[in-house]
Design brief:
Oligomer: single chain
Strand content: under 5%
Structural class: mainly alpha
Number of helices: 6
Radius of gyration: 28 Å
Largest sheet: none
Number of strands: 0
Helix content: 55-70%
Shape: elongated
C-alpha cells in the first residue's frame, strides 16, 4: 500500500507542477526552458526545441514574397504614412473655424482624406490579386472576407497585414496559423499532462495485478 501511495503522490506532484506552468502561460507570463527542464526533464525540453524548430521551418519569409504582395505592402505603407502624419498634427480650434468658414480643409483633414483614399486603393488592389490567385491568402494575418459583412475596414487597424509584417496592427498569432513559443510550450505541457494521467492509470493496473499475485489469487 505504501508503494501505491508513493506513486500516486509523485504523479500528483508532477501534475500540479505541469498545471502551474500552464496557468503561468495563460496569465501571460514567461515559462523558461529551465522551467520545462525542471518539470518535464531533458526529454521534455528536447521535444519542445524540436517542435519549435519545426514551427519556424514552416513559416514564410521575405525571400518567398510574391511581387503582388510586395506591391500591396508598398501601397499600405504609403497609406499608413499619411494616416500617421495626420494623427500627429495638432491645430487650434480658432484656426479650424476660419478654415471651415472659407470652405478650406486643414492640413490634418487633407492628410486624413489622402490616407483614406490610399487605403481604398490598397484594398481594391488586394481584392484583385486575391480573386486572381486565392493561394496568396496564406500571406495575410486574417481571413480575407470582403464587402460590408467582411472582416476588413479601411483604416490602419482594419487593413490586412502580411504574416511577416512588423506592424503593431498585425493580428496576434496570425489568425492561428503560426504558433508562438508560448503556444508550443503549452502544447508540450498539455501532452505531458495527458501522458501523466495515462501513466497513472497504467501504474494503478500494474499495482492491482502485483498485489493480486502477492495474495496468491
Amino acid at each position: 500500500m505504501r508503494l501505491r501511495a508513493w506513486i500516486a503522490y509523485m504523479r500528483e506532484l508532477d501534475k500540479e507542477k505541469i498545471k502551474a506552468l500552464i496557468k503561468k502561460i495563460d496569465d501571460g507570463k514567461n515559462v523558461s526552458k529551465r522551467d520545462l527542464l525542471n518539470t518535464l526533464g531533458k526529454s521534455g525540453l528536447e521535444q519542445y526545441e524540436d517542435m519549435w524548430e519545426y514551427e519556424q521551418s514552416t513559416r514564410l519569409t521575405k525571400d518567398d514574397k510574391p511581387e503582388q504582395i510586395k506591391k500591396y505592402e508598398e501601397m499600405l505603407k504609403a497609406a499608413d504614412f499619411a494616416a500617421n502624419r495626420a494623427s500627429s498634427i495638432n491645430y487650434d480650434r480658432s484656426n479650424k473655424a476660419k478654415l471651415k468658414t472659407n470652405n478650406k480643409l486643414s492640413g490634418k483633414e487633407r492628410l486624413s482624406d489622402k490616407s483614406q483614399s490610399l487605403y481604398e486603393d490598397a484594398l481594391e488592389f488586394l481584392q484583385e490579386i486575391i480573386y486572381e490567385d486565392r493561394s496568396l491568402e496564406v500571406w495575410f494575418d486574417r481571413a480575407l472576407i470582403f464587402g460590408t459583412e467582411g472582416t476588413i475596414s479601411i483604416d490602419a487597424v482594419g487593413m490586412p497585414r502580411t504574416v511577416i509584417s512588423r506592424s503593431n496592427n498585425k493580428q496576434a498569432s496570425v489568425n492561428g496559423r503560426y504558433k508562438t513559443k508560448s503556444d508550443v510550450k503549452r502544447e508540450i505541457l498539455e501532452q505531458a499532462l495527458a501522458e501523466n494521467d495515462e501513466n497513472t492509470q497504467i501504474d494503478t493496473e500494474k499495482l492491482k495485478r502485483m498485489l493480486k499475485g502477492l495474495k496468491g489469487d
